[in-house]
Specification:
- The protein is mostly helical.
- It is 66% helix and 0% strand.
- It is built from 3 helices and no strands.
- The chain is rod-shaped.
- The termini are far apart.
């Protein structure tokens, strides 16, 4: 009985190609993820109102709502 000789699998190109496919997949996934995380430009923050301006605007909105509620209450006896 004879057995087939065992050959070194790593001397072929098959493991190299499999490794290359895995690395290519990982790099493509990374590149797509980076493209998906598009950050707004630095000038984007300049357009937003500051926290103090937002508080003032909300305070004005509350005062206006109170005035409107008082006007509605005055109309009913």
């Amino acid at each position: 009985m004879r057995s087939k000789e065992t050959t070194d699998i790593y001397c072929t190109k098959e493991p190299l190609l499999a490794f290359h496919q895995r690395i290519t997949f990982c790099l493509d996934l990374h590149n797509q993820s980076v493209k998906a995380m598009r950050y707004p430009p630095k000038s984007y923050g300049k357009d937003l109102e500051s926290a103090e301006e937002r508080r003032e605007r909300e305070q004005q909105d509350l005062e206006l709502a109170k005035e409107m509620a008082e006007e509605d209450d005055d109309g009913f006896p």
